[in-house]
User: Fold these one by one.
Assistant:
Number 1:
Amino acid sequence: MLIKRFQDAQPYEAPNHWGVSGLRLQGFEAGGPTNQWIGYSQFLPGGGAGPDSTPFEKVYVVLEGEMTLEWDGRTEVLRAMDSCTIPPGQVRRIENRANHVCKMLVVIPYPPKPKSE
């Protein structure tokens, strides 16, 4: 079992994101999860990500505030304790259009391991 304290979380930079501060809560450490990592993102008003996609699925959980999600010509607002699963290859854009910080958990699988020859 691995217990990590919030004070020990390390920052990370997510590509194609703006107005956000990300912390890695779990993942990429000895004794941690073996198939995914957990990020904690704080999006300032006007902060967001995309439009882009990833080759793997991910899960967003809004803890506080709200996040506008756009995909396939659709728009939805996720609020506290709402969540969504984004399938592999799904182009999406997210933006905090509110005047309060949006706090989210992000669950992302580890990248595939290179095949040994």
Number 2:
Amino acid sequence: MPHRAPVARELAEVFKLIAHPDRIRLIEELRTGECDVNTLAQRLDLPPTRLSQHLSLLRAARMVAERRNGRQHLYSLAQPQIARWITDGLAFVEARAPASMAGDLREVRELWS
């Protein structure tokens, strides 16, 4: 019988890492391709320093890749399927969300599809 505990622990670490609203938005923003910190900060309305901290955590976990183009640092998803996980998770949110969130959920689904 396979030992599921180590795999479950590793998966829990992945979930723990993406279990932050800023990181979820960041992953979804990077699903369309690479981007630099300042552009990401502007699109997500986050301070560049805070965004850099999130990118650092995701890079350390090998979820985000960094490429340098001169002085510019460009970031992309190392495993783009992680963005699909998040989009698939919208169904769970929709199933338990109050009716007042229906418009927001529809808007997010359109944005992330």
Number 3:
Amino acid sequence: MSIISAIVLFAVIWWMTLFIVLPLRNVTQGDTNEIEPGTHASAPAEFSFKKKARTTTFWAIGIYIVVAGIILSGAIEVRDFDWFNRMGPPSLRSE
């Protein structure tokens, strides 16, 4: 895996993890009964992006280590997802 591939893989994992972390432990304005005029009751009462980013980074690093380890070990390859045999037979290179 090249360095660019590693960076792109981490970025994709980070953003996917962020969208999972965002709604966790979210306290809404409706929960605190302090609804600001012009906003929905489901809007966050207190939001700390720094805390969410820190949590996201922590989990993304762990997930990245597992995914990169699987890719680098060769346990799963692209050919494992070729269910319609479009890639043709594997090459006969000696390893």
